[in-house]
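Q: Sequence in, structure out?
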Amino acid sequence: MAEPSQIMFSFKEIAAALVKQQGLKEGIWGISVKFGLKAMNIGDSENDVRPAAIIPILEIGLQKFDKESNLTVDAAKINPKSKNKPKP
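A: Exactly. Output:
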């Protein structure tokens, strides 16, 4: 079987992995992306230069939401609190 060259994830899968990694146990959490904005002149030649915008992704994180959507997960469902009480 060939090795995959690309593995894609849904927004919910990414949110779930980050919620688990952070140990969040309650609340609705979703993907948050911080963009930057840069500009430069580009073209195939000096006579075909045009202004262009470059929008890099600066950060990817979690943000608390009020209700569920395709970007979010409920932390209580995917990372429930442990029912075992710690021993004193």
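Strands lie at 28-35, 38-43, 49-54, 57-65, 72-74.
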